[in-house]
């Protein structure tokens, strides 16, 4: 039997399988679990445990960004429009949200 603490996490955490690699995406603000208003701009952390990742990536998610704030539209198949799998996974929960990598090179 699974204990109550494992069924209901105290902090938001997602186990991910991106490009065949397992990783963890988590937040340190427990209000993300219960208060939708905190989903405006918030921070998540990403760790994949691979040697090439030197430190946990700090991401800022903005769910109310505006289309005119983005770069001009390109052909989705062009190399400049390619998005990291992590961003695509985040957008399955927060559609249309923008992800700032805060100085970390995005993981492809």
TrEMBL record:
PANTHER family: INACTIVE UBIQUITIN CARBOXYL-TERMINAL HYDROLASE MINDY-4B, UBIQUITIN CARBOXYL-TERMINAL HYDROLASE MINDY-4-RELATED. It catalyses: Thiol-dependent hydrolysis of ester, thioester, amide, peptide and isopeptide bonds formed by the C-terminal Gly of ubiquitin (a 76-residue protein attached to proteins as an intracellular targeting signal). This is Ubiquitin carboxyl-terminal hydrolase MINDY. GO terms for molecular function: cysteine-type deubiquitinase activity; K48-linked deubiquitinase activity. Residues 2-103 form the Deubiquitinating enzyme MINDY-3/4 conserved domain. Its EC number is 3.4.19.12. Hydrolase that can remove 'Lys-48'-linked conjugated ubiquitin from proteins. It comes from Glareola pratincola (Collared pratincole). InterPro entries: MINDY-3/4_CD, MINY3/4. It is an enzyme of class 3 (hydrolase). The keyword Transferase does not apply.
């Amino acid at each position: 039997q699974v204990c109550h603490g494992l069924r209901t996490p105290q902090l938001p955490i997602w186990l991910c399988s991106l490009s065949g690699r397992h990783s963890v995406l988590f937040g340190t603000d427990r209000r993300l679990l219960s208060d939708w208003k905190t989903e405006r701009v918030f921070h998540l952390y990403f760790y994949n445990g691979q040697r090439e990742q030197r430190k946990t990536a700090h991401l800022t998610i903005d769910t109310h960004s505006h289309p005119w704030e983005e770069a001009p539209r390109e052909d989705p198949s062009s190399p400049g429009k390619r998005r990291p799998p992590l961003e695509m996974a985040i957008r399955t929960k927060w559609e249309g949200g923008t992800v700032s990598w805060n100085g970390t090179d995005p993981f492809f």
